[in-house]
């Protein structure tokens, strides 16, 4: 057991604070990672603040983790001390069900184990995430990070990157397809960059014009602001093959479904706490598909990282210290992040 520095939440309505937590001794298949950078995902905020239901405190969140291996267990074969690696939202799954065998560990039929606020399958302890100086993880859930990627800017790929890459790949974003990205925060800006790199024609649908120059710089050919123009979506009727919807707050899905071409698909990746109501007719007319997508499996996460290395893609980040996390949370909720906060682990 090793006691390490961290930042943790102690209750839904209290600010996060500096603390310590105990890290297990390495299991045979574990690597110990000295964390270099840790991204702040809106899911950390939903979870910490109890918006998705009760959770375990104290909780050190963080599932966009980049660092170097400082120790390996005796059964580790695929990784070496000194190598740069990443950890995303998953640290374990059953490994035996059809989803795990297909490399879709996020959809493990026996329940995946999240990087934090989840029950460890082997010892029943509650997992603790990347807002800490060290994290042990089974080699089966670690991702190789090429040295060519800037490590701070690559951290958000481990959640925001794979969560948007996976549905873009599944629904065939590429040359000749028109893709809209709704909400240009952490996930949304990655979706724009990835869809453009895949060869799709990308439109950003944001609630303001504030991010227009950035959206075009990330690869969008069009940008529509809905906030000050209620009719903006009307002009997009039947425009898109695929919509990746990243909005984190309640919204009317029907408005966006109208913007799909017949047989087009809207994929929800944003997870507003409230349920949504959709009339069947909004899907039946035009045979439209409404889908969801949950991060991505480990093989596809490695594929996404390799794609990003090949295309020189990383996140746009604001690097912060541990004492700025609470302020950063408020800025994310206010859509005032350009475009992902990443914490320097030296400050934990
Ligand atoms: P984020 O950085 O806060 O981005 C969310 C974006 O949604 C904002 O930048 C904003 O974009 C838009 N938005 C926010 N409030 C809105 C409102 N009231 N009306 C319209 N648009 C609004 O959050 P994120 O980290 O990208 O995460 C987005 C969502 O995805 C969260 O709910 C998160 O929990 C979820 N998530 C899901 C998965 C998954 O596996 N499915 C993985 C990670 C995260 P504009 O300013 O451009 O309008
Ligand atoms: Zn996330």
Automatic annotation (TrEMBL):
Reactions catalysed, semicolon-separated, are: a primary alcohol + NADP(+) = an aldehyde + NADPH + H(+)
Reported cofactor(s): Zn(2+)
**Xref: SUPFAM superfamilies:** GroES-like, NAD(P)-binding Rossmann-fold domains
What the entry lists under CDD domains is as follows:
CAD1
One Pfam family of this chain? ADH_N
Q: Does the keyword Oxidoreductase apply?
A: yes
Q: Name the enzyme's class.
A: oxidoreductase
Sorted UniProt keywords: Metal-binding, Oxidoreductase, Zinc
Sequence similarity: Belongs to the zinc-containing alcohol dehydrogenase family.
Catalytic activity, EC: 1.1.1.2
Q: Which organism is it from?
A: Brevibacterium rongguiense
GO molecular function per UniProt: alcohol dehydrogenase (NADP+) activity; zinc ion binding
Enoyl reductase (ER) domain residues are 14-343
Its protein name is alcohol dehydrogenase (NADP(+))
């Amino acid at each position: 057991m090793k006691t390490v520095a961290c930042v943790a939440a102690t209750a839904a309505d209290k600010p996060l604070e500096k603390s310590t937590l105990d890290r297990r001794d390495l299991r045979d298949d574990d690597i110990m990672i000295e964390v270099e950078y840790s991204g702040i995902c809106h899911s950390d905020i939903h979870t910490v603040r109890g918006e998705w239901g009760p959770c375990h405190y104290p909780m050190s969140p963080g599932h966009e983790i980049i660092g170097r291996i400082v120790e390996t267990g005796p059964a580790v074969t695929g990784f070496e001390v000194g190598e740069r690696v990443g950890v995303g939202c998953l640290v374990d799954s059953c490994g035996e069900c059809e989803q795990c065998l297909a490399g879709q560990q996020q959809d493990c039929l026996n329940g995946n184990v999240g990087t934090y606020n989840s029950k460890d399958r082997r010892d029943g302890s509650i997992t603790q995430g990347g807002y800490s100086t060290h994290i042990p993880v089974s080699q089966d859930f670690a991702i190789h990070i090429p040295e060519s990627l800037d490590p701070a800017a690559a951290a958000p790929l481990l959640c925001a990157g794979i969560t948007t890459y996976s549905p873009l790949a599944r629904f065939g974003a590429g040359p000749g397809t028109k893709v809209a990205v709704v909400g240009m925060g952490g996930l949304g800006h990655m979706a724009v960059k990835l869809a453009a790199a895949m060869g799709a024609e990308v439109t950003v649908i944001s609630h303001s014009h504030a991010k227009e120059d950035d959206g075009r710089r990330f690869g969008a050919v069009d940008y529509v602001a809905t906030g000050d123009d209620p009719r903006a979506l009307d002009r997009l009727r039947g425009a898109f093959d695929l919509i990746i919807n990243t909005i984190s707050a309640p919204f009317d899905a029907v408005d966006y479904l109208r913007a799909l071409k017949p047989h087009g698909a809207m994929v929800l990746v944003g997870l507003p706490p409230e349920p949504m109501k959709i009339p069947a007719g909004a899907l039946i007319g035009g045979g439209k598909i409404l889908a969801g997508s949950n991060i991505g499996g480990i093989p596809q996460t490695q594929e996404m990282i390799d794609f990003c290395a090949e295309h020189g893609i990383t996140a746009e980040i604001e690097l912060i210290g541990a004492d700025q996390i609470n302020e950063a949370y408020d800025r994310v909720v206010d859509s005032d992040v350009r475009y992902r906060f990443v914490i320097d682990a030296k400050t934990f």
